[in-house]
Amino acid sequence: MKKPPAEIIQAFPPELLEKLIVVRDRLVAWNRKFALTSVPDDEIFDRLIAPSAWLGSRYVIEEIGAVADFGSGPGVPGLTMALADPQNRYILIDSNQKKIGFIKHCLTVKDLYQANNVEARLSRVESGVYKEKFDRVVTRGTGSMLSTIKLWEGKVKAKGAFDFFKGSETEAEIEELGAEIPTAHVEELKTPGWFGRLRVLRVCFT
């Protein structure tokens, strides 16, 4: 497996980087058996793991609380966000048993998740109000911002927010969201150059 680029290596403390590589290696091995992601093996670290850990390193300086990773798949982005952020609690939600199985496998790796701040849930998010309320929802590749926010109505606290990993073509989504929910405010987080065309859009409500 190729070594991550120097600019990515320098973005993380050595101890965290070592753990991220462990997750990368486990994901590559499981992906060859169960096809958990279409991203090629050599690109998994740069495209999936590193950007997720970067956002986690932003979360660690905030007292967020409960973070729901909606449509987590093989733990993207929540699994490695939680490695970079032991302060907040992560609930990784997906309806695919094999993908949740991979997450649970990683949680059992010795000395990897010492903070015990991750929960994997095999579940499908349904419309309606939940008794449990989340402080933040983070997601990647689960549909439009508007459809996701509507689905999560009644499940997020009043001052909660959404973070979306998106590609470069998002203007139509932003316009659709603003037209349907005028109180939604979209902010693009400033990300490192190695993110390429990947963007992180935060949606808050006034």
Automatic annotation (TrEMBL):
One of its GO terms (cellular component) is cytosol. Pfam families: GidB (PF02527). GO terms for molecular function: rRNA (guanine-N7-)-methyltransferase activity. Keywords: Cytoplasm, rRNA processing, Transferase. HAMAP family: 16SrRNA_methyltr_G (MF_00074). This is Uncharacterized protein. The lineage of its organism: unclassified sequences, metagenomes, ecological metagenomes.
